[in-house]
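[stage:ingest] chain + small molecule (zinc ion)
[stage:ingest] validated
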Amino acid sequence: MRVAVCLIMCMLLPLVPLSTVQADETHDQAWPGEPVDNHVHMTWAAMTLEVNDWADTYPEIVDLISIGESELGKALWVVRLSDWSTETQPDGSQKEIIYIDGGHHGNEYLGTALAWLSAKWYINGWAEGNEEAINVLQSSEVHVLIMLNPDGNDIDTRWNINQVDLNRNYDHYWNTCPTTQPGSAAFSESETLANSVYMNTVVPEADLYVTMHTGVWIMLYPWGKWPEQPPDWELFHGIREDVNGGISEIPIQNANQGLYPNCGTSRDYGYGAMGFPTFTFETDDEQFVPGSFEDLNERLGEEMDVMRYLINNVWYWRARLDVQSIAVEDDMLTLDIVNHGMASTANASLEYITANGEVSWASPLFEVNASNSSVVSFAVNDGMFGADGTWNLNYQKRVINAATWVNETVNVTATYDDGEQDRFLTGFGLFNPLSVLATIIGVAAFSNERDLRRKPDEIEDDERNATHEN
Ligand SMILES: [Zn+2]
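[stage:predict] done
[stage:export] tokens:
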């Protein structure tokens, strides 16, 4: 315990100016009044001590790695939290993956602190037997890169040591918006390169990516590059409805509209290149000096409420197709399918796999809207399916092109109207006239479903002239 206290004090003491110490006595009155004119500062050195202490104290749930080094050679720590005693969720399914980073900009301390708190909240909760924390760690892996820009953090600057804005240095429409200091090329900086390698190699299946900043109290979803709503607008708007419907009034907007055009950001890269549902979470900039986890948890309590909602519900941030029935009757295959997820999928197909593993039939591509149930029909030759084959479902987890694919076995048995037991494959493939007809019927079936879809909101007109941005 004394070690922990010391770590916190070590973290804060060198950076507490006298004026703030004096102001601390009037903290209750000052907060949430005028911002205190100084920064909360967690040094990289103190953070290094602390995250290693977490790993030593809680090896059951904390797996600490360095994923690379800053330009000046400081380790980029990722705290990986899960109940490592089991590789899967209690029901045997794969754990959900959540990725969080903070500290792209070295002078945005509360955003970095929110990343720190997102890790510490689950560690403390697990240690105290908090049911929510235990459930999350049993069902998920939470990967937190607390401080991406330790060199900039140490000298209290937005930029990294090469004077590059790391949040303009990602390989997604890099340097195609008016901006300053995006670097000499996409991923020219060791910090952003390490982050992208981690995304691509360790957490490519993440169903949530939150990148944390300080400035304007707002949550931004893609795009920064374009004012148009992103392909997965239903998911982002659904989350906004939930959050604003009782958790927090924090504004949640398309980044281009909510702030201004910005390109080469980790948010647009996370969504556009990785296919993650991605938010930039901006805390406000009204700082005070938190003396403890409890202080910071109170200061960022509303932000943590939003984070806990996003993490608790990560299961819903993709399409989750669930076949209810497959019926073949009168040369027509009818598929009854439910999407439990809050994201739509645009290019699903049902496949029939023969006993020797060949895909002998695949439906035309169809879409299933978020939180919806659909019935689709395809023209088939009802003699083409055998009794010993299996059905697969193939689809992308979200509408964005970069979304990862799901290919899973369907656990329902098809029903046939004629009771025939002997079925022979007759060589129908994707390019025969029947398949073309099936495409037409499939499209017709979905033209009805489309009408049920929610319309995108009008472009928000609440433009902000933020002086400090993501
Ligand atoms: Zn920032």
